[in-house]
User: Which sequence fits this backbone?
């Protein structure tokens, strides 16, 4: 209610919200009214609205602090191992003629095995100059997606937990 009182000036609306939070819900098994001390009653239409109001501050924090600071670079660098094989198999490539016959033979042997280009990522997954963070929230459920070192992901998790 404190957050609502900061934004809403109408006492009548605040009274209605307060009463709706205290009314409780009807238990379908016992047909008894169950009063709740915290949160919104089960199935209340106010639940998603109040979740949006309360979690708005978290949205701002994550978007402005977490996502901004943990999104680095526009694109990953290409994987040198992938490039060595890709260059050898196509004579139209720029560096095709710079490869020695032994390197070409070795790369072609890799190509004869089932699908090496499918098992080697085209872009470097360990590129230190590329990180991505994304945030998605629907009502009271949210997920933070992070592509980068595990230590940084754990730090992000701890920071968001502290904020909440």
Assistant:
């Amino acid at each position: 209610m404190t957050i609502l009182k900061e934004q809403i000036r109408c006492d009548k609306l605040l009274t209605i919200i307060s009463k709706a939070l205290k009314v409780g819900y009807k238990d379908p098994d016992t047909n008894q009214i169950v009063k709740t001390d915290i949160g919104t009653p089960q199935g209340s239409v106010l639940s998603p609205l109040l979740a949006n109001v309360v979690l708005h501050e978290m949205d701002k924090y994550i978007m402005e602090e977490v996502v901004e600071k943990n999104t680095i670079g526009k694109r990953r660098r290409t994987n040198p191992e992938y490039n060595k094989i890709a260059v050898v198999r196509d004579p139209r490539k720029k560096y095709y003629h710079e490869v020695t016959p032994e390197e070409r033979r070795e790369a072609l042997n890799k190509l004869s095995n089932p699908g090496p280009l499918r098992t080697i990522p085209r872009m470097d997954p360990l590129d230190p100059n590329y990180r991505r963070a994304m945030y998605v929230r629907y009502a009271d459920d949210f997920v933070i997606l992070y592509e980068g070192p595990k230590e940084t992901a754990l730090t992000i998790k701890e920071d968001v937990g502290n904020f909440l």
Remarks:
- The helical segments are 2-7, 11-22, 46-69, 80-89, 101-112, 116-119, 150-163.
- The chain has seven helices and four strands.
- Strands lie at 25-26, 33-34, 132-138, 141-147.
